[in-house]
Amino acid sequence: MIFDSLAELESYVRGVMDKCAGICAEEMLEIMREEIENAYSSYSPSMYSRTGDLLNTPQIIQADSSGMTTEFVDNGGWYSLVGRTAGQHFFALEGVEAGTYWGRGATNIYSFSAVKCYSNIPDKYKKCLISFGIPIQ
User: pTM for the whole thing?
Assistant: First the structure.
């Protein structure tokens, strides 16, 4: 590629960085969903019916040339079923992680997702940049 100005080069690189951040943020969501699936497969509920809504909690907060941020987002649609908190809002993923609800042990969805993202995404981002012609080492 030949650029006519430094501004043109910078614009191209920032555009590629934006695209790669979006691609990598989507990969981060997949990692997060896989960890939820792993937790789902290790336990069958007896007190409630599983809706699969936890799979919708991973969300892209930001993905551009300045970085990528994903989070497990509380959609506000969960409520405690029993005990002194019955009927009150309750983020189900927090209960699953803590292992204090539903007679099951704690999960590691947050930590396992973070470890996989921190170990996989930088290399994926670098490969993405290279695939768009950015000579990075």
Answer: 0.85
